[in-house]
Each structure stands twice: as C-alpha cells, then as structure tokens.
Amino acid sequence: MKTLAATRPDALTGLRIGGFQSFTTLDFPGRMAAVVFLQGCPLRCVYCHNPELIQPRRSTAFRWTGIRERLERRRGLLEAIVFSGGEPLAQAQLSDALRQVREMGFATGLHTSGVLPDRLARLDGLLDWVGLDIKAPFNRYGAVTGLDGSGVRAKASLDHLAERGTPHEIRVTVWPDLIGPAEIIEIADQASSRSCQDFVLQECRHPYTGKALGGQVFSDAVLLEELKARFPGFKVRRA
Ligand code: SF4
Predict the structure, then answer these.
(1) How many other β-carbons are positioned within 10 Å of the β-carbon of residue 163?
(2) How far is 239 from 226, CA to CA, in rounded Å?
(3) Considering only Cβ atoms within 10 Å of each terminal Cβ, which end of the chain, N or C, has fewer?
C-alpha cells in the first residue's frame, strides 16, 4: 500500500516564493541580510522593476523548505532576513515565515507598498524593521500604481507604523513625469508629521530600457537641504 509522506509542519507549502538573494548589505539598514522575494502584487506601478513577481500563481523553482535549509546553514553569518516582493503582505503564510525566521535567531525585515494595512497590522510584534514605499502624494496614487484608492491604504500603513513605533524607512521612487519637488515635499510633510526619521529618494530605471531616469529632484539643492534638515536618516539612492 502506498503511504503518503508527512508534510513537515514548518514546510509552509502555500508560501509562493519568486526569488532569493543570499546576501545583501543594502536591504536592511546596518545588517547583513538575505532577501526572500514573495510572488504576487495587487499593484501595477508604471516603473515596476520586478514584473515577473506580479502574477500570484506563477510557477517557480523556490520552496520554503529549501530556503529554510539555506538560512539554517548561514546562522551566525547573516543577521537579518527581509521579505520583499511583489507585495509580501499579499500572502497569508508570511506571518508563519516571520515566526520561523525569528526562531532561527534572525532579525526580520519587510519591504512593502503598504496597500494591505490590515495585514500589516496583523504582523505587530513580528517585524524589526519596515521599508515602506510611498509612491506619490496620497490623493494621486492611482497615477503611479494603477489602483484607485491605494493611497488611502498606504496612508493607513504609514499611520500604523508611526503609532506602533516600528522602525521604518520611507522610500520614494522618483518617476520624473509624475514626481517632482512639489510632490516630494507633500510626501515629506506627511512623513515628518508622523516623526519619521529615515527618508530615501530613489532613482528609477526605465522598466524597458533599463536607463536611469534621474529627475529634477536629484539636482535640486534647496529640496535636498530641506529633506536633510527634516530627516536625520535622509539618503539619496541613485540607480
Ligand atoms: S509594488 Fe513593487 S512589485 Fe508591485 S507593481 Fe509596484 S513596483 Fe511592482
């Protein structure tokens, strides 16, 4: 008679993983980290740099058991594991994966667009750091993300992180046609009014040509000084 192999309770067979980066010093400030990219995203950003991660059901070769084994072998070498995407909050098993990572002794990080604020709130106590993309002034979000109403949700996530005191960084990716100095100041007003400390302007690459797009904001000395004065952790990340 055929016997079914028991599934390990920590296997998280429902977690859909689109990629894995075994080492980075750029994705969790001040920590040596690995990044697990989760599959699926409800947004359609004009500049999306990971389009292969958007479809939630795309078949991939990555399994959580394999990733777990690799992380086990790197205990003592890595300090943190970051879940990125896609939009990692779209997957219900993220909380179990975070618990397992914590049990292995790693700090936990999340990269998110913040469009699923209720799911973010359910992770209270499981996150050591969050990188929150703020894509536009909240009332003009749809122009960047393709999803009307997404700004209201991102605002709720920012509120939640500020209220909980979860360490976080606000990242603004500059799509030059839509984001100029006035838009940056609007976003900075929202962030500084919630006592945000770390604010990053990120240069964007064109999704088809790969060309770095720059933009007026990166050479606007007045704007850059203003941001430096407001945020102790202000940074510019060129593509
Ligand atoms: S949130 Fe990220 S993964 Fe989703 S569409 Fe926007 S850029 Fe792409």
Answers:
(1) 10
(2) 22
(3) N
Per-residue pLDDT of the chain (239 residues; tens, 9 = 90+): 555 567 787 889 999 999 999 999 999 999 999 999 999 999 999 999 889 999 999 999 999 999 999 999 999 999 999 999 999 999 999 999 999 999 999 999 999 999 999 999 999 999 999 999 999 999 999 999 999 999 999 999 999 999 999 999 999 999 999 999 999 999 999 999 999 999 999 999 999 999 999 999 999 999 999 999 999 999 999 99
Cα Rg of the chain (Å, integer): 18
By alpha-carbon position, which residue is closest to atom 8 of ligand 1? 48
| Top-tier CATH class for 17-237 | alpha beta
Q: Which of 38, 46, 47, 48 to mutate to test the pocket of ligand 1 (most atoms within 8 A of CB)?
A: 48
Give ligand 1 pocket residues (Cβ under 6 A).
Answer: 41, 43-45, 48-50, 53-54, 85-87, 113
Answer whether 0.85 is exceeded by the pTM.
yes
**CA 175/CA 186 separation, integer angstroms:** 15
Residue nearest to atom 3 of ligand 1 (CA): 86
Please state, in angstroms and rounded to a whole number, the distance separating the CA atoms of residues 130 and 111. Answer: 6
- Distance between Cα 4 and ligand 1 center (Å): 39
3-class DSSP state of 126: coil
